[in-house]
Write the structure tokens for this entry.
Amino acid sequence: MHLSWYGENCFKIQTKAKRGDNDTIIVTDPFNKKIGLRPPQGQTNIVTLSNINYTKNDLKRFKGEPFTIDSAGEYSIKGVNITGIESFQDDKGGELRGRNTIFTIESEGIRVCHLGNIGHVLNEEQVDNIGEVDILLIPVGREDLLTLKQIKEIIGQLEPGIIIPMNYKVKGLKDKINGCQDFCKEFGSARQQGETKLVIKEKNVKDLENNLVVLKVS
């Protein structure tokens, strides 16, 4: 499995769900280039949209008419199992910023959890529905979503093998948000930093616990 980060909540996940099959390309929360970063494009099979900040208008650049998932439920596409779990962008039941969908993406024996713009710690039902997490993609730069204390609590709830921070300030991004320095200080030095892609196999992730990986924007 290959994971590349494009900024904000946007990742490209390249996976081969079954031996001999072509790669399946998944893009999470694609954005408009107006934010100052270069969005992914090209052949794409699946797009997940965690909340209303990411709209289907941003899908025109993709080739292949990707299957789009923007709500809770269970999906199986091209051998990839995806579960959408209801949550919110605030701790007021969505009254301030609306709904958010957490996505788990399972392929090659690896389970990725993309939290989207989650704005609260998880309840017991959400933790159960998420299940085991090998790779956690968590927003760390927006205090209006999560405080550092809440981020630590969520990580403690899920106990992931690998933690990849997202949605923080990078060069070129016009949004005025925080960097990931405070988060990284809390979790120690990154196992991998400065690379644009994480390449991981099932046998290399199962024995890990809270390994921090900081990716460079692709």
Notes: The helical segments are 124-130, 148-158, 181-187, 202-205. The first strand starts at residue 2 and ends at 7.
